[in-house]
Design brief:
heterodimer, A: alpha+beta, Ubiquitin-like (UB roll), DNA polymerase, domain 1, 33% helix, B: alpha+beta, Aldehyde Oxidoreductase, domain 4, 3 domains, 5-stranded mixed beta sheet, 21 helices
Chain lengths: 152, 759
């Protein structure tokens, strides 16, 4: 029996402990904002937070979330509105198809939580694992800088 | 449950359908909701005022506009309805967009060819203007004045001389009683009266994209549905010799396996065949599939290997082919004694790799089917599912979700047919989930191409004769087994329409057989045609020691309309009238001259690892010039600090979304150039995921892409695709300028530029 918190709610799971967290989140908890892109931790579409750090839910087994706090895109907005990263994303009209953007935003939120004023190379290192096939990278970079309040 | 819907008060029904953030997938809250219960259609048809299939008005003034084209990232779901809203003078904040199901009454819904705005600009204006006229007439009637004295402001009719105003909502009931005006009575706004066209709006789903609420194909749900993972034949046309599914069935959560018959050629949009594992969760289906033991008969395509095929293509490209355009006599000129320069170019197969792999949910009940899927072409879903199940296409309701990218892959609904076939066999709703490996290994690939270029040049280095020949397995092979020669649809794309002013010119195509499924891929044949023409032009300019841009302008020659029809060329012009959308070298010259100016061309000298490259290309009726700057270090790493695009797409509806398409095209082009390569060995695809089929990531993408849109009152052209074709040669020409190393074959990842920067 695996116990953990998902967006603040206690969860218990007694299925296959090797099942990736992604499929718990999507197919069992019914939270569809977290996306499947590659299943191998190569693209970042499935990024969620484990204890505040960005992880790829497609390659995080359920056994690895026991006792941990998991947060998904559905729960990063505060009680008074969207997260500053989400606001920056909207103001820069970052998304094209939008599919990868939950993962991009989760990655950026984790980056700014640990590095509030990231340099260009810190942004590049942090975001290199998140693929956007539409090619919104220029606006992702701009939105992160805006959210961080650093010069574009 | 369908009757239950009808029993719900319409107000309540609407509320349920279109509460904040809800997308059309909201219908899924009623799983067996009525086959043929087309919520979008009934919403419009039942709206009190609905003069067109595209628009309905509620008495509170809410305007429902149908988005009949698919949304895959280009914002067509926003920009096409925006045209209607403009002509209606509607307040955009009071507009609700409703996604259409597949239905021929909307006209073509095949969202490809960069034509959503182009083909529906006037139909949308007509629908908007018709509605506006009815509202004006209703107001005039109420006020006892002539409609000619009334005008419209934002969401209201105004009688200026008396100062009377009425909100659209107040006029809906009266307008609904009026006859729909004839086309001849409807007047469009003047350009200076446009409020949205040319200004644009944010994507309708922007907030949902950023909060995880947007509904994609993978998010479709139905009560009691099973998830399916399919083991497809590794080689196109392969069949099952024997199957052992015992271990698969032993996986917890796996319900059953279903064999899908291999298609009979041509492949069209039929399922590939294979064995599906149906399970309670996606994970169980994936695990079950791993446990299948299948012995395949790989069939006739098992001999396909890319290394051998490449040599065959290149040999064919050096032999005479089918002539598509011929002026003067190139052979005579080649023999006349001028210097002859030849070059051969090669681009491998490419996979679309949209971030969302193909996904489809189908629910078959008797001879009716409901499908929810990320498709670019819902009417093709109706046709293909109908054919596969032997039922009329009208019995197939195709709900279109948002698409996590499409790029042409999702024009082919084989995955929706798979879901329907499986749902019928399982007697339950089935969602087919393609993994990334499925997506990369079983795509309708961008074709593999070899091109041969040959020019005779005079003492100044200007061509006196020009021959170009492209060879590639054609898209036609997907629809006609054994097709080896290109169609006009491919040859028009940057090949027969080469805009150079040359006395002797011949354009050819040679035969090539297909051994994988071939399909449209963002900008299609323009990719290899622009690569060959624009790189060869750069080579000739280099040979002539000429400035690249001046040399290109000289080849293009004076401003003129190139009348290909008059030359006897079979030139479809992307389905558009040549009178409305001519091949106009004045517009091509203009974007080139602007690109030189905006990019600061010539201010910094290329060489020593820094290079500027240029290319210009007309595709999808849009003129694009592109300047790319690269930096190549001693390790051979290539950085792209800046890209400048100048775009003449005629009338532009949504400038920011147009810019974003070009920003994205530069990244898509970077992926093609750096990494794009799908190879087959013994008929099976060798790549499988983003580790061995790499695409561009943030650190290696162009750092700053500037997009300048030419102000032009010409009719609207395309913006989704035209950014890709000139980018790839511009980048490779920049690499040559930086390193003196010429790129004739892609991908760059296979080439070594280390130390090249010093030469």
């Amino acid at each position: 029996m695996i116990q953990f918190k998902l967006n603040g709610q206690e969860q218990t799971f007694d299925g296959d402990p090797s099942m990736p967290l992604l499929w718990y989140v999507r197919d069992i908890a019914g939270l569809s904002g977290t996306k499947f892109g590659c299943g191998m931790g190569l693209c970042g579409a499935c990024t969620v937070h484990r204890n505040g750090k960005a992880v790829r839910s497609c390659s995080t087994p359920m056994s690895g979330v026991a006792g941990q706090e998991i947060v998904t895109i559905e729960a990063i907005a505060g009680p008074h509105g969207l997260h500053p990263v989400q606001i920056a994303w909207i103001e820069n009209s970052v998304p094209q198809c939008g599919y990868c953007q939950s993962g991009q935003i989760m990655q950026a939120v984790a980056l700014l939580a640990g590095t509030p004023k990231p340099s260009d190379s810190e942004i590049e290192n942090a975001m290199a694992g998140n693929i956007c096939r539409c090619g919104t990278y220029q606006r992702i970079r701009a939105a992160i800088k805006q959210a961080a309040g650093v010069k574009a | 449950m369908s009757t239950e819907i009808q029993n719900v008060s319409r107000r309540g029904f609407l509320k349920g359908m279109f509460s904040a953030g809800a997308f059309v997938l909201a219908v899924r809250y009623l799983p067996d909701a009525a086959f043929a219960q087309d919520a979008a259609r009934s919403l419009i048809d039942q709206a009190p005022l609905h003069p067109s299939v595209y628009v309905g008005l509620e008495t509170d003034g809410t305007v429902y506009i149908i988005a009949h084209r698919s949304e895959m990232g280009t914002s067509s779901r926003t920009s096409v309805p925006l045209i209607l809203a403009d002509e209606l003078d509607a307040d955009w904040s009071r507009v609700k967009i409703v996604q259409a199901v597949g239905d021929p009454r909307y006209g073509s819904q095949d969202t490809d060819g960069s034509k959503s705005v182009r083909e529906f600009f006037n139909p949308m204006r007509e629908a908007g203007a018709t509605t506006r006229l009815m509202l004006v007439r209703a107001a005039a009637q109420q006020w006892g004045v002539s409609p000619d004295e009334c005008s419209t402001g934002l969401h209201q009719v105004v009688h200026a001389s008396s100062g009377r105003k009425a909100d659209y909502g107040q006029l809906v009931a009266a307008a609904a009683k009026l006859p729909v005006p004839a086309k001849s009575e409807v007047k469009f706004k003047k350009r200076d009266q446009w409020r949205y066209i040319g200004e644009g709006e944010d994507p309708y789903d922007l907030r949902d994209y950023c909060t995880g609420k947007a509904g994609f194909g993978i998010d479709a749900k139905s009560d009691g549905m099973l998830f399916a993972a399919i083991a497809h034949p590794l080689v196109l046309g392969g069949t099952i010799k024997s199957l052992d599914d015992k271990s698969a069935l032993a996986v917890k959560g796996v319900q059953r396996t279903v064999t899908i018959e291999t298609f009979k050629p041509p492949c069209h949009f039929q399922p590939l065949g294979g064995v599906a594992v149906l399970a309670d969760t996606t994970w169980a289906a994936f695990q079950g599939r791993k446990q299948l033991k299948i012995d395949w008969d790989n069939g006739a395509n098992a001999a396909y290997s890319s290394d051998v095929f490449k040599r065959q293509l290149q040999e064919t490209a050096r032999k005479p082919g089918k002539v598509w355009r011929n002026q003067g006599n190139v052979d005579k000129e080649f023999a006349a004694g001028n210097r002859v320069i030849e070059a051969d170019y090669y681009i491998p197969h490419l996979a679309h790799a949209s971030m969302e792999p193909p996904m489809a949910l189908a629910d078959v009940r008797g001879d009716h089917v409901e499908v929810w899927t990320c498709t670019q072409n819902p009417q093709a879903v109706q046709e293909s599912v109908g054919t596969a199940l032997g039922i009329p296409k009208e019995n197939v309701v195709c709900h279109v979700t948002l698409l996590g990218g499409g790029f042409g892959r999702k024009s082919k609904p084989d995955y929706a047919v798979e879901a329907a076939v499986l749902s019928r066999k399982a007697g339950k709703p089935v969602k087919v989930v393609w993994s990334r490996e499925d997506d990369v290994q079983f795509d309708y690939y961008h074709t593999v191409s070899a091109t041969h270029m040959k020019a005779a040049v005079d003492a100044n280095g200007r061509p006196t004769a020009w021959l170009q020949r492209s060879v590639f397995p054609p898209i036609g092979s997907t629809f006609q087994a054994g097709a080896e020669l290109a169609g006009a649809g491919e040859m028009q794309q940057g090949w027969t329409d080469i805009p150079y002013d040359l006395p002797n010119l011949r354009v050819e195509n040679g035969p090539a057989p297909a051994h994988v499924r071939i399909g449209w891929f963002r900008s299609v044949a323009n990719i290899y045609h622009a690569f060959a023409v624009q790189t060869f032009t750069d080579e000739l300019a280099s040979n002539a020691s000429a400035d690249r841009i001046q040399y290109a302008l000289d080849l293009i020659g004076p401003p003129r309309i190139i009348d290909l029809k008059a030359m006897g060329v079979d030139y479809p012009n992307y389905g558009a009238s040549p009178a409305e959308y001519p091949v106009d070298t004045a517009r091509l010259r203009h974007v080139i001259e602007q690109a030189a100016e905006k990019s600061g061309w010539g201010k910094e000298k290329s060489g020593n690892g820094v290079g500027y490259g240029f290319a210009a290309h007309r595709s999808f009726l849009t003129y694009v010039a592109c300047v790319v700057k690269v930096e190549v270090n001693a390790d051979g790493d290539i950085a792209i600090p800046r890209v400048d695009y100048v775009v003449d797409a005629g009338t532009v509806v949504n400038p920011d979304r147009t810019r974003s398409q070009f920003e994205g095209a530069a990244v898509y082009g970077t992926s093609i150039a750096r990494y794009g390569e799908i190879t087959a060995k013994n008929g099976a695809i060798e790549q499988s995921n983003f580790n061995d089929y790499q695409v561009t990531r943030l650190p290696e993408a162009p750092r700053q892409t500037n997009v300048y849109i030419v102000e032009n009152e010409a009719p609207p052209a395309g913006v989704g695709e035209p950014g890709v074709p000139p980018y790839v040669p511009a980048m490779c020409n920049a690499i040559f300028a930086a390193t003196r190393k010429r790129v004739r074959e892609l991908p760059l990842a296979k080439l070594d530029f280390s130390k090249a920067s010093q030469s």
